[in-house]
Amino acid sequence: xxxxxQVKNVYKSFGQNHVLRNFSMSVHSxxxxxxxxxxxxxxxxxxxxxxxxxxxxxxxxxxxxxxIHNMExxxxxxxxARIGFLFQSNALYDSxxxxxxxxxxxxxxxxxxxxxxxxxxxVMEALDDVGLAHTVDMMPEELSGGMRKRIALARTLILRxxxxxxxxxxxxxxxxxxREISQLIIKVQKKYNATSIIISHDMNxxxxxxxxxxxxxxxxxxxxxxxxxxxxxxxxKIREFFD
Length: 243
Ligand SMILES: Nc1ncnc2c1ncn2[C@@H]1O[C@H](COP(=O)(O)OP(=O)(O)OP(=O)(O)O)[C@@H](O)[C@H]1O
Prior knowledge:
- The chain is of the alpha/beta class and 243 residues long.
- It has a single domain, classed as Rossmann fold (3-Layer(aba) Sandwich), CATH 3.40.50.300.
- The chain contains 9 helices and 10 strands.
- The protein has helices spanning 43-50, 73-81, 98-109, 112-129, 145-157, 175-192, 203-209, 227-232, 236-242; strands at residues 5-14, 17-27, 32-36, 58-63, 66-67, 83-86, 163-167, 195-199, 212-217, 220-225.
- The strands form 2 sheets. Strands 6-7-8-3-9-10 form a 6-stranded mixed sheet, sandwiched between helices.
- The protein is globular.
- The relative contact order is 0.17.
- The structure holds adenosine-5'-triphosphate.
- The site of adenosine-5'-triphosphate (ATP) has 11 residues, from strand 2 and helix 1.
- It comes from Negadavirga shengliensis.
- Residues 5-243 form the ABC transporter domain.
- This is ABC transporter ATP-binding protein.
- Keywords: ATP-binding, Nucleotide-binding, Transport.
């Protein structure tokens, strides 16, 4: 089966800042792939290239076996609707209740009739998935950081994305809460057979969630292996992340 995401020989520079230099990777259906790299190594640039928010200078990127830089805007919009993002900031609307936050993506992608019929059920199912059905009428400010992260994940799940991009999902959370989020990532993978790209520095999260780890070093895919193999590596550039 073709990879869900394929990045091949991609280059991206900003002036003299050569961020991606012949970077390649593939993500397979149902896989949790972690991208690990130092701050400023280009992880966010890579994600933005995959959804064509910024265009690569060279190389090609295929999502669902289609080259994204040839796509018309409406085709790109349809593609993006199949991709869910969990931002580091959660990006919840503070002035809206949890229910309204979850309904927000439905407004863009479901008709009025569909919403009237199915929004309540979709909201409750997504909240159930993250164990927070009781917060439906609460405001974001009433929730802890970990709960807000889970609500943000519920809002991502409500459109049933085929691909989920997690941007440092456990950053800023205490270890117990971080563990809960990692467990949710695994649950989502199993329940929805989601294909995920997870950007993370959190070794516990990586150990728990990753089927495979890509190390983005010097603009390229420096290593591509399981967490346990990388952990045993003696390569000094790889060891830096573990020591
Ligand atoms: N739009 C842009 N214009 C100019 N430079 C940019 C732009 N976006 C990113 N960069 C540069 O590209 C490099 C990689 O940035 P990126 O945000 O991808 O890093 P990162 O690996 O995600 O870092 P972090 O872990 O700190 O979030 C940085 O040097 C950054 O300044």
